[in-house]
Task: structure prediction
Amino acid sequence: MKKKLISMSLLAVVFLFSGCGNNAKKVTNDAPISRSNFYLGTYCKVTIYDKSDESILDKAFNRIEEFDKMLSINKENTEVDNINDKSGIEKVKVNDDIFKLIDKSLNYSKLTGGAFDTSIGPIVKLWNIGLDSARVPSKEEVTKALPLVGYKNVELNANEKTVYLKEKGMALDFGAIAKGYIADEVVEVLKDNGVKKAIVDLGGNIYALGSNKEDKPWKIGIQDPDLERNNIIGYMYSSNKSVVTSGIYERFFEKDGVKYHHILSPFNGYPFNNEIMGVTIVSDLSIDGDALSTSTFSLGLNEGIKFINSIPNVDAIFITKDHKIYLTDGIRNNFSLTNEKYKLAN
Ligand code: AMP
Ligand code: MG
Result:
């Protein structure tokens, strides 16, 4: 059977420059160690700048592989397959990782009034965006699948550590939140092994650990959504922060001149159609950044800005289809626009 992975962005959306600042002082002699591998439908890259012990990379990638096995769908006996197979039949015992993913997801579903919903699985499967089998489903198919989407029918029991999808045919899809959680877990592995300077890049889902070799915050570029991969719209400096982008250009396909992207409305089963081209979230934890990037995208520009401004220690950079940049309050002094095609709008 063809291995099908959970839907995740294929393109890096945030570029990173390891160089920084003008007058670099302390530079260690060790070259960084780095490894890149294809897991979970995306390129996962870990670079360590202050240790040369390759076994740390082994441990980091073992953790990523663990998630790859756990979260893949349509591979027999994965945790997620099992939950989905038992929908409408019985509750399923889940491990701590899956429990946390579902718990966090339900929290963001409540905060967004259901716009963010990891029970979007049946709709994701209809569209298959990002796979060769991507297509526009018929209205009938969408109408039939929609009642199977609904976070209120996901029953999570904290005492038993079980989950039950109440309707037969329901399916969880962690594409909007898993990379963030895995990034956090990889960072934990690195910290446990004494690493203080590293970049974790899971297909553009970036965590910047500590500082760079010159003991300065990392310089992180935000990609130009017009898919010019080596171009950025601007940059900022970050230490111990996650930087995650959701956008219409990450995964999409075109049919009869219409572009269909991968963030789908749990309300009507079609891609959300709003003014946002991409939204980047800067947060302490990447699980929050990942969930919030998708959540904010689904809320649209005005609601999205209000939403992020209401959450402490989280900031956002919005890029709209008319090439304007909107910033939340906390990032105004830390974002430099470098691309003339774009204008700061607030
Ligand atoms: P991201 O790139 O983090 O914004 O996540 C997008 C992925 O999340 C999609 O490829 C789907 O697998 C899944 N997804 C799509 N729409 C939603 C939604 N409304 N809520 C939660 N997950 C979604
Ligand atoms: Mg996300």
In short: The longest strand covers residues 276-283. Confidence is low (pLDDT under 50) at residues 1-15, 18-27.
